[in-house]
Amino acid sequence: MVVRTVILGHGMVANHLVVGLERIKNGDMEPYGVPFGNKDLGIDFDEIEIVASYDIDSHKVGKTAYTVARRAIGDQVPVPKSLRELVIREGVHLGSVEGLPIKATGLDKRYSLGDLVDILVDEWREYEPDVFLNMLTTEHGKPFEDLEALEYAIEEDNRERLTATQFYAYAAAKYSREHKRAVFINVIPVPLANDPAIVKLYKLSKGLVLGDDGATGATPLTADLLEHMAERNRHVLSIAQFNIGGNMDFLALTIPEKNIMKEFTKSSIVEDILGYDAPHYIKPTGYLGPLGDKKFVSMHIEYITFNGLRDELVVNYRINDSPSLAGMCVDLIRLGKIALDSGCTGTCYPINAFFMKKPGPKEAKSVSKIVAFQRLVDFLSERGIEILSDLESR
Ligand SMILES: NC(=O)c1ccc[n+]([C@@H]2O[C@H](COP(=O)([O-])OP(=O)(O)OC[C@H]3O[C@@H](n4cnc5c(N)ncnc54)[C@H](O)[C@@H]3O)[C@@H](O)[C@H]2O)c1
Questions:
Q1: Does ligand 1 lie within 6 Å of residue 68's CB atom?
Q2: What does 294-309 look like in DSSP terms, one character per residue?
Q3: pLDDT of 394 higher than 60
Q4: In the prediction, which pLDDT does 259 show?
Q5: Residues of CATH 3.30.360.10 domain(s) within the chain?
Q6: What are the tens digits of pLDDT across the range 34-64?
Q7: pLDDT single digits (tens) 238-259
Q8: In the chain, how long is the greatest CA-to-CA distance?
Q9: Residue 257 C-alpha to ligand 1 middle, in angstroms?
Q10: Which one of 116, 332, 359, 392 has the fewest CB atoms closer than 10 angstroms to its CB?
Q11: pTM of the model
């Protein structure tokens, strides 16, 4: 089997993904940081093929993934020469990097949105993707709720209402309906798997949308620590968690509307896991250039323990930000394909619950990642993929 994958947004996460994947395929490193990297999912790393990648940064469009990766991460990791075969294509901008120091280009300068849907679907007919992986700069997007409203926005060429993420998701659904069933994986906060309109669109297209907002770094750890508190009936009084980083993603989050999108996807975990809304401050708080891609995370949780006494938990750590999501993406690609082939349409909560900060569908709750992992193992077992025995043997 070959899982043909299209990348949307060739930034830091994409650089680490394409480089890391090639290095694993070449046997140059172990798949550490890939959740099911040491389990047999029935799809090998060799079977993942990146067939196309899109961006709107004029310094990237037309360049190879090799050149772009050398520039971005070449001082940290060896960049395989095989990436010279992947040339980054021009995407659809729709204002997604406005306010950032990026010289943007975009097909939407030359075509209407309706025409662009057909242009992209025609391109994808040649590449035959099974998977679309959306890793654009964080955008400020509102759910459509109603499928007709989404269709109307495309018809009316309403560029104010549509984000690039929603536009790509719409075009990929059309491709899925007319040509080949496909999965759209959304690791950014724009609501797709949390938008009933998009989930309905994917159901009708016999495709699958997974999302929203990849859970790496501090948020899954906070979720698991809250599970720990809930299971011991410790009453949480407050949660403070902040991230400071120096990559483009953190710079984008200095734009208030974009930061609000992250706050929304991160904060939903508190009430969902504890059952009450403990006062909390959970958001990316700042940009500090010298930290680069290795962000600084700090967390403080105060709670009431037995006999009414107060405990405090303090965690400080530094995380390589983009590689942690890139490792997750390797398995999102494989699991997305497994879910699609087993007949799932619309969205797939067991996958979203483990991999996403705001797992869709809209009405679904966040659970801790420890609980979500066990449920995902059950989901795979129902599809004939047994990895439980492996876990039990530990
Ligand atoms: N650990 C993590 O790094 C992490 C965790 C969760 C979610 N995310 C999300 O992943 C996304 C990518 O993160 P990153 O660090 O790679 O960011 P980045 O800024 O390095 O990369 C984003 C890329 O998308 C491109 N882009 C922007 N608008 C586009 C459009 N309309 N069409 C095509 N390309 C477009 C940009 O030019 C850039 O190359 C962010 O939205 C972030 O919120 C990251």
A1: no
A2: EEEEEEEEEEE-GGG-
A3: no
A4: 61
A5: 218-320
A6: 999 999 999 999 999 999 999 999 999 999 9
A7: 999 999 999 888 898 887 776 6
A8: 68
A9: 16
A10: 392
A11: 0.94
Distance in angstroms (rounded) separating the CA atoms of residues 277 and 75? 44
Q: Are 318 and 217 in contact (CB under 8 A)?
A: no
**How far is ligand 1, taken at its centre, from the CA of residue 97, in Å?**
10
Listing DSSP states for 117-170 in one string gives HHHHHHHHHHH--SEEEE-PSP-------SHHHHHHHHHTT-TTT--HHHHHHH
pLDDT single digits (tens) 58-86: 999 999 999 999 999 999 999 999 999 99
Continuous segment of H or E residues that includes residue 175: helix 164-178
3-state secondary structure of 40: coil
Which of 94, 123, 136 to mutate to test ligand 1, by most ligand atoms within 8 A of the CB atom? 136
Residue limits of CATH 3.40.50.720 in the chain: 3-214+323-380
Q: How far is Cα 324 from Cα 214, in angstroms, rounded to an integer?
A: 10
Q: What ligand 1 atom has the least distance to the C-alpha of 251? A: 19
pLDDT tens digits for range 86-133: 999 999 999 999 999 999 999 999 999 999 999 999 999 999 999 999
Cβ of residue 266 lying under 6 Å from some atom of ligand 1: no
Tell me the C-alpha distance between 166 and 110, whole Å. Answer: 19
**Closest CA relative to residue 350, chosen from 333, 328, 335:** 335
The answer to whether the CB of 144 falls within 8 A of the CB of 165 is no
Using DSSP, state whether 289 is helix, strand or coil: helix
Q: Which two tokens stand for residue 281?
A: 């401050």
Superfamily of domain 3-214+323-380: NAD(P)-binding Rossmann-like Domain (3.40.50.720)
Cβ neighbors of 31 (< 8 A, separation 6 or more) are 24, 37, 38, 45, 327, 330
What is the architecture of the domain spanning 218-320? 2-Layer Sandwich (3.30)
Is residue 284 very low, low, confident or very high in pLDDT (cuts 50, 70, 90)? Answer: confident
Which residue, 1, 2, 3, is CA-closest to 131?
Answer: 3
